[in-house]
Amino acid sequence: IENRLREVSGTLRDLSLGVGVGLHERFAAGAAIHYAFGTRTDQSSVRDYVDETASYVETDEFAMSGVNFTLGLRGVINERVEIGVAWESQLDAGGDRTRSRYEAGTDSTALSVVDGQYRYPNIFRGGLTFRPRTDPATIITIELEFVPWSEMVDDAFAGADAPTTLEDITDVRIGLQHTFYNGMPLRFGFRHYQSYADKDAGSSAFSAGLGMPVGEGMLAVSLELSKLTSVQAHQFPYPDDYFGDPFYADPDARVEDTRFRIGVGYTMNF
Question: Are the CB atoms for 17 and 33 separated by under 8 Å?
Fold first, then answer.
């Protein structure tokens, strides 16, 4: 009856420059400035095989950029325990927002370019590192991140100063690294984070990785498996009378999202 497509693509990237200063033998502070840039493209299209004139293609492209900063503080409790806290400021990302809609019924395209703006929320982070008395060395890390997404502002929907209806979230990460006598680290991780779009949805991720000394640095490989279950609204509405008789559909649907990721990295200190 219809061929429907919804595709959202784009990545917001950061270029960062930071500096760290030792204030005391037990305290250190750091600061970084970030330049964020990227293009987000949201495209929806419908090909209606029953009524060709109802077909359309709609595109929303937002090329944005902005600057924000991070401040952090690290404290050494003793030789076994370290703690750290950090605050990342709000990011005002703005730029040109180009919208177009092609209607098959009129064989025409409507195009508009306006100024767009996102104001991302503050981000608060805290972490703990624990080194138990083991030989070979073992390191346990715990990190907590809080993001008040209810502060998010998107001028396309709520106006320049009105927050969106997103949920505040927490992100908990726990990691363990055990280093063997040959210098190869074995790593395990667990992460649980909430969804800013649905307060009842959350995701848990499990990861495992291995490091290998290569040259002057360390080559790392990791695997991650996670699953997210949520209830979401349909991407496209279901008309009540599409089939000629009254037809009713639940406005929401259960969505299960399983993710498998492979990570490869190389670290070198000099």
Answer: yes
- Residue 31: name the closest of 86, 82, 84 by CA: 86
Element (H, E) at 41: strand 27-48
Side chain identity at residue 110, one-letter code: A
Q: Are 36 and 13 in contact (CB under 8 A)?
A: yes
Cα–Cα nearest to 44, from 98, 100, 1, 96: 100
- The three-state secondary structure class of 149 is helix
CA dihedral sign of residues 265, 141, 197, 237: positive
Measure the CA–CA gap between 157 and 180, rounded to whole angstroms.
54
How wide is the angle at C-alpha 155 spanned by C-alphas 112 and 199, nearest 5°?
A: 125
Instruction: Spell out a b/e string for 88-126, using b for 16 or more CB atoms within 10 Å of the CB, else e.
Output: bbebbbbbebbbeebebeeeeeeeeeeebbbbbbebebe
* CB 142, CB 128: distance < 8 Å: yes
pLDDT tens digit sequence for 41-99 = 999 999 999 888 889 999 999 999 999 999 999 999 998 999 999 999 999 999 999 99
Distance of CA 26 to the CA centre of its chain: 33
Is the separation of the CB atoms in 6 and 236 below 8 Å? yes
Per-residue pLDDT at 190 = 95
DSSP sequence for 218-265: EEEEEEEEEEEEEEEE-SS---TTTTSS-----SEEEEEEEEEEEEEE
- Of 210 and 236, the one with more pLDDT: 210
pTM: 0.75
The per-residue pLDDT for 163 is: 63
